[in-house]
């Protein structure tokens, strides 16, 4: 029986800008996404029977259809019925290291790993863009999780354009374990507060004066200038998440206090991160934040930029 082990890295957002509301009710975005070394491991193998079985040691992770990894396996069954009949169902085990509901795309990465794993198990020979098209039906972040590295994501977040890869930039991540922010809540809160500024048709959003533009950040990435990258971090969702979650606001302020390249919240939060120029600087931030906030509920990680998404090991 064939089996594969995949690594599914977390992502952070270096830029997240909301351009407006789309006709499909999602938000039109410009994001710059970056994968980091902090990753989940996903084991997958074929079953003789026709079911999908999901395991995870973390009791907070649902094991049914509400888990995106489960839905990824279901989608492959529906799309490739002949291969499914021939190979049978799949058993998937998630080894979680990425915090859950954290703004780090952990669930999307697991789903991306299941798509890649089933492609291999069933010998489908799908291309990266085939897999990304399937991934976009599961969630806006899944296509990026498949390719990873550094990329611009537009549309709902599912249209991916790769950027030059970056090395040697370290990241300290902080998240309160008991704190989760719902992504739909964050976007809806943003919409309630800023709807009056937005038109409904994306075409009408071009050249709007409030746009921040990711151009300076993209130029800094092209120049591999870590200092400028750190100075140009941006996230519109901070405007609603930080006021609603004082602990996240306090954590962000604590991160900012220690020498770093730049501090920001990732995605819809509540994870906060600082970029660091070296492992030593990252370790110093880690220890200083830990000393200032000894709360055992606060999880801290030191990781670094990585240049790929899901991969088989
Ligand atoms: O695409 P995904 O299912 O991951 O998105 C989760 C939720 O985040 C959506 O249901 C929506 O509320 C919000 N969202 C959005 N606009 C986007 C992406 C996500 O409003 N571009």
From TrEMBL:
Active site positions: 11, 141
Residue ranges constituting the GHMP kinase C-terminal domain according to the UniProt record: 218-294
Metabolic or biological pathway: Isoprenoid biosynthesis; isopentenyl diphosphate biosynthesis via DXP pathway; isopentenyl diphosphate from 1-deoxy-D-xylulose 5-phosphate: step 3/6
Protein name: 4-diphosphocytidyl-2-C-methyl-D-erythritol kinase
A GO biological process held by the record: terpenoid biosynthetic process
Domain GHMP kinase N-terminal: 67-149
Annotated gene: ispE
Function: Catalyzes the phosphorylation of the position 2 hydroxy group of 4-diphosphocytidyl-2C-methyl-D-erythritol.
Family assignment from sequence similarity: Belongs to the GHMP kinase family. IspE subfamily.
Top EC group: transferase
Catalytic reactions on record: 4-CDP-2-C-methyl-D-erythritol + ATP = 4-CDP-2-C-methyl-D-erythritol 2-phosphate + ADP + H(+)
